[in-house]
Amino acid sequence: MFARASEDGFIHDMVLYYGKTTLEAHDVPLKPEQEGLGATSQIVSVLASTMSFPTTTAIFADSFFTSLELVRYLQDHNCRYTGTARDNRIGKPQLGTIKEMEKKAVPRGTCYYVTSDDGILAVRWKDNKTVILLSTDMGEGPMSTVLKYCSESKKREPVGCPAVTRSYKANLGGIDKSHQVLPMKSNRRYLRLFAYVIDVSLTNAWVVYKRDCKALGVKCQPLKDFKL
Fold first, then answer.
1. Which of 2, 199, 219, 220 could crosslink 15 through cysteines, CB 3.0-4.6 Å?
2. What is the pLDDT of residues 87-135, one digit of tens each?
3. 151-170 burial by CB neighbour count: b if 16+ within 10 A, else e?
4. Are 150 and 105 in contact (CB under 8 A)?
């Protein structure tokens, strides 16, 4: 199940995977320009097409979805994007290679970046491993520091961190928040799907309830106190 969620865990749209005909059942048919995209890029483009305000929204996704073609497609439709990426899906930007970045002589926190003529930022940042990001939403600066555990000194030490990485870590996770309160588990596929639809409805209602409580300035009743 592929889903699009807001940062507070509210799920707005879903696509159920079932092979080559995955996108045929979605309410929004593929446009000719989408048909030329890869499979994961098509999924993101379809989920993005149902957003109410795409020009004022930024999408965050992991390396399973991110590619240069997807970032360009969304950019052409005035939608901002940030995501981690695999090295073979970012084109050939003028950056240091992963092999060079992972040499011991290159300190942790090192950041190389380049921006294309059409405004796409590509970043390589050295953490425990080399992290690659593509973005049309954030720049590399201002650089800041984050505390990371160092295996050599056995303590947390400050490590340089680009702004785009901090933004990615802060905004990715809406799906995870939703799944934290999805209770039912089953080995039977049809039961899982049935339970998921019900649980998503309940979880979305809970998120809306919390939003309303925050807007009204009242205390939320704990989720465990609700009886069905």
1. 2
2. 999 988 888 788 888 888 888 888 899 999 889 999 999 888 899 999 9
3. eeeeeeeebbbbbbbebbee
4. no
Which of these, 209, 128, 156, lies nearest to 226 by C-alpha position?
Answer: 209
Q: Tell me the percentage of the chain whose pLDDT exceeds 90.
A: 29
Are 203 and 211 in contact by the 8 Å Cβ rule? The answer is no
The token pair at 61 is 């996704």
Closest CA to 160 of 116, 135, 134, 123: 123
Query: Amino acid letter at 125?
Result: W
Instruction: Please state which of the ranges 33-37, 45-49, 188-192 shows the lowest mean pLDDT.
Output: 188-192
Q: Give the C-alpha separation, 198 to 52, whole Å.
A: 24
In the numeric block, which tokens belong to residue 137? 């939403």
Beta strands in the chain (DSSP E): 2-5, 11-15, 58-61, 80-84, 111-115, 121-126, 130-135, 144-150, 155-161
Q: Are strands 144-150 and 111-115 parallel, antiparallel or unpaired?
A: unpaired
